[in-house]
Amino acid sequence: MQYLAGLVLISSLIASTLAADCSQLPDGIYEPACKTYLQCTGGVASTVQCADNKVFNNVTQACDDMINVGAPCGTLRDCTGKADGLYADVDWKCRSYYTCNTETFMGHNPCSANLVFNEKLSTCDWKANVDPPCGDKGKNPVTKSAFGRRR
After folding, report:
1. Residue 14: pLDDT above 70?
2. Per-residue model confidence (pLDDT) at position 107
3. What is the pLDDT, as a whole number, of residue 141?
4. How many CA atoms lie within 13 A of 134 on its CB side?
5. Are 83 and 53 found together in one domain?
6. 50: number of CA atoms within 13 Å, CB side?
């Protein structure tokens, strides 16, 4: 089974390389995606696959750690113009938050299970205590009458 998976991977890489035509293109990187990109060198195309824990970084034009790469592939957040503080990571449904310090992204921190980040309190909290878009605070719950019908 492992042999078959390896064979499929190799054949797909060969097929994608053969399908690309770099003969009329200058050397460079083309068709970048989160995990792969096409490298053209001297008219020859080769598909580059990033390692499991890496994604393509448009700035450096190479595979890089996710923390160094912006969305949608990476986890780097833009802190330009943001005050020092903790911010809910809405891309991750507020289950984590990130820190900005002197307009520099300092990293992500996860909340414990079933909690979301409450920016007002700068801590992880129950959804019922947190304003939207991270929580449910202030939303009217659907209630049922004694007969099981919605009111």
Report:
1. no
2. 87
3. 59
4. 28
5. no
6. 20
